[in-house]
Design goal:
By secondary structure, the chain is mainly alpha-helical. It has one domain (12-102). The protein has five helices and no strands. It has helices spanning 24-34, 41-54, 64-68, 70-80, 85-102. The longest helix has 18 residues, at 85-102. It is globular.
């Protein structure tokens, strides 16, 4: 089964769809990242965080996640995260440090 919303890794177009998934800390992070260009370090870090959070590298065309699509998968995983929004912001900060190693500031 093919779903138009399914891609190889977390697609940037889904970022803005995640805005209302959690409380203010998460909303502020999404607002900060959603308008950045794809090569911006914060944008790259957000995508990296979501790839890890969603398990995108283990997703395949026959999986239930792929059949539901990237948007629904990401929404479900963000909503399922236990703990406060600050934990997700910490994951983002960690991904930012990791992304900076491979895509340093210009």
């Amino acid at each position: 089964m093919y779903n138009d919303d399914t891609e190889l890794l977390f697609p940037s177009r889904v970022i803005r769809e995640l805005r209302e998934a959690r409380e203010s800390g998460w909303t502020e992070l999404v607002d900060r990242v959603k308008e950045t260009p794809p090569d911006d370090p914060e944008h790259l870090a957000f995508v990296l965080m979501m790839v890890k959070l969603n398990g995108c590298t283990s997703c395949n065309a026959d999986s239930f996640r792929a059949m539901r699509g990237c948007t629904q998968c990401a929404l479900q995983n963000v909503k399922r995260q236990k703990g406060p929004d600050s934990e997700l912001v910490k994951l983002f900060d960690k991904a930012r440090k990791e992304a900076d190693k491979f895509a340093p500031q210009k």
